[in-house]
Hints:
This is Cupin superfamily protein. InterPro entries: RmlC-like_jellyroll, RmlC_Cupin_sf, UGlyAH_Cupin_dom. This protein is mainly beta and 127 residues long. It is 0% helix and 51% strand. The protein is built from no helices and eight strands. The protein has strands at 17-18, 30-39, 42-49, 52-57, 61-74, 79-83, 88-91, 96-111. Strands 1, 2, 3, 4, 5, 6, 7 and 8 form an eight-stranded antiparallel β-sheet that branches. It is globular and about 40 Å long. Mean pLDDT is 90; it is low at 116-127.
Amino acid sequence: xxxxxxxxxxxxxxxxxxxxxxxxxxxxxxxxxxxxxxxxxxxxxxxxxxxxxxxxxxxxxxxxxxxxxxxxxxxxxxxxxxxxxxxxxxxxxxxxxxxxxxxxxxxxxxxxxxxxxxxxxxxxxxx
Length: 127
């Protein structure tokens, strides 16, 4: 995405592919992502998943749900989050999750690229 431009997040094309069987907990589901760019070393883009259930190990990420709904289970913490349009979520690197998508989910994500070492600075604004 070029500076000083706008796009409709709902119109971004995301190519969906079958989720690998080792991650899948339902009969079938697909997901995919379209990277839109990198800003200050942080990758941003659109990710989407069809209805179904699949596991993942997360990157350090912040995302905003654009459409759809899901329950994200955190088995190691024995808790879950129900997310839908307008929800802003933070996931920690290495967190194991199980996503149950109730209605096809689309989110805007911000994450460190896979080859970037270390977590994002969480200390807040700097003077």
